[in-house]
Design brief:
The chain is an alpha/beta fold. The chain contains 10 helices and 6 strands; from the N terminus they run βαβαβαβαβαβααααα.
Length: 210
């Protein structure tokens, strides 16, 4: 029996994973969490065999949390389960101690294979990500068309282009300011930009906003 912890701030994702995995023999969900604080509290009570961890949490960056967990619980393999398919995130999570990296659109069998692989002490990376890494290594740059934004990132990017402040964006979208800052950091990483003006200019040039 493999025990699991699931950490994601979206209730629908947690519910979907719970439903998907609860029907699988040999797998038991030990706890679910919607924030970094909940993950830490749950781990103080019981440590699962594998932790599925989203990169974006409302109170802490998932990369930072992964590093902290890997230091405190080195026996616990962490699998990043995220929408981010950029190589920079893969590298940061793996350097932070993650043993696996999966995209949220993955199917049940791939998810189970990843869980069993990291439980067995090996690494597991989504096949799409492996292809991107290979192409990046060969070409020395990101594959064309790899940069994709989530619907939330597009919303925030559009508001940035209209000169909304972080607080105004947070108020308009009913988000915490930390979440907005996390999305802005993600946009900067994806587009390799360090200032708002450059971010907006690059987004227009790439056709990400109009």
């Amino acid at each position: 029996m493999i025990t699991l912890g699931i950490a994601d701030d979206h209730s629908l994702i947690v519910s979907g994973l719970t439903h998907m995995l609860s029907e699988e023999t040999g797998v038991r969900i030990l706890f679910t969490a919607h924030s970094g604080a909940e993950v830490k509290a749950a781990l103080r009570q019981q440590v699962p065999d594998v932790l599925l961890l989203d990169i974006e949490l409302p109170d802490i960056n998932g990369i930072e949390l992964c590093t902290e967990i890997s230091t405190r619980y080195p026996q616990l393999p962490v699998v990043a389960l995220t929408n981010h398919d950029e190589i920079v995130y893969v590298r940061k999570m793996m350097r932070g101690g993650a043993k696996g990296y999966l995209l949220k659109g993955t199917d049940k069998q791939t998810l189970l294979r990843a869980i069993r692989t990291v439980k067995g002490g090996e690494q597991f990376i989504d096949s799409q990500i492996e292809q991107a890494i290979l192409q990046h290594t060969i070409m020395g740059k990101k594959p064309a068309g790899q940069i994709r934004l989530t619907s939330r990132e597009k919303e925030i990017l559009t508001l940035i282009a209209h000169e909304f402040s972080n607080q105004e964006i947070a108020d308009k979208l009913f988000l915490s300011i930390r979440t907005v800052e996390s999305h802005r950091h993600s946009l900067n990483q994806k587009l390799n930009i360090k200032n708002p003006a450059g971010l907006v200019k690059e987004a227009y040039l790439r056709g990400l906003i109009s």
